[in-house]
Amino acid sequence: MTTDLWDKRTRIGSKLYGTILPTILKQLRAKTRELSHMKVHKNNFSVEVFGLYPDMTPWGHVLDLKSHTCSCGEWEMTGKPCPHALAFILMFLDIDRPTFVHEYYSVERFRIAYSGSIPRMTDKTQWPEVDMSFKLLPPPLKRAYGRQRKNRFKASHEPGLRKQQRCRKCGEFGHREIGNCPFNDDPKKRQVGLF
């Protein structure tokens, strides 16, 4: 399964074009749909993005374009521009947009990751034997949740035997009234056995 997946991704990597993976571009396009309420202010040192929460309270975040960081923390954690960075990037059409996405999401990195091959494993008889100098035991079993099964039934006076059932019709031990009670077969016995 692993080699099949590796081969499949190698073929996918050979067909990809551009600099950023298509799935990442799709995610970034989806984020840009909700940026109309953000306002961007650029000065010499930083970029500030402002907006309003639904309850009309203001918020603001500061971007550092050189280190690819935002005060919200999302950009440096994921490597993909956060909505605040995307609001700035969309304002300026002359910016090289792929430079704001981490190199990890590039098509070139994807191709390099799946360019090699997985070496085949040899037969088990050819595996090296390792002397561990101790015997490795399985982990101790944990007690199951709930009441233990051995305690569910009350033990009879003799060990190893369960409590015998008493018939409601004849009052004898060893059977029940539904099963093989002798009063079930003969109507006369049935009348005599009633209490």
Automatic annotation (TrEMBL):
Question: Does this entry carry the keyword Zinc-finger?
Answer: yes
A Pfam family that this protein carries is SWIM
Molecular function, one GO term? zinc ion binding
Provide the SWIM-type domain boundaries: 61-93
Give yes or no: UniProt keyword Zinc-finger: yes
Q: Which InterPro entries match?
A: Znf_PMZ (IPR006564), Znf_SWIM (IPR007527)
Keywords in UniProt for this one? Metal-binding, Zinc, Zinc-finger
- Protein name, per record: SWIM-type domain-containing protein
User: Which species is the source of this protein?
Assistant: Eleusine coracana subsp. coracana
The encoding gene is: gb27415
